[in-house]
Amino acid sequence: MAARDIHERAFEFACRVVRLHRTISLKRGVGPLASQLLRSGTGVGSNLEEAKAAQSRADFIAKARVALKEAREAHYWLRLFGATEIVPMKRVTSLVQEANEIVAILTTIILKASTKNPALS
Fold first, then answer.
1. Most buried among 5, 48, 68, 76, by the most CB within 10 A?
2. What is the tens place of the pLDDT at every residue in 18-74?
3. Residues 37 and 14 sit within 8 Å (Cβ to Cβ)
4. How is the chain split into domains, by residue range?
5. What does 31-80 look like in DSSP terms, one character per residue?
6. Domain 6-114 top-level CATH class
7. Closest CA to 99 of 3, 2, 1, 6
8. CB neighbours of 6 closer than 8 A, spacing ≥ 6?
């Protein structure tokens, strides 16, 4: 099985977050929390898109770091929704796992980009 591109994974993750948001935002008192998830869950991919057009390695790293922060935040909100039973844990488990994997991938990308590589200078 071919590895999926991080940009495609982030887009698919955002789509899943949007669908989940539609469901949970209708619950009384959950709207503000659902909005936090929506912002962070869709922010991963939008910041990666900006990183594609980075003007320098430093700019790329900065945008990738923002995407990483958004992925970590989305991971938090998803865990919270499951732990508080706003959403059944079985429904968010795969999203939590995907957020975790995206965090790991972005961490690796940032570390590699931060390492001095004469070919990239």
1. 48
2. 999 999 988 888 989 999 999 999 999 999 999 999 999 999 999 999 999 999 999
3. no
4. 6-114
5. HHHHHHHHHHHHHHHHHHHHHHT-SSHHHHHHHHHHHHHHHHHHHHHHHH
6. mainly alpha
7. 6
8. 48, 102, 105, 106, 109
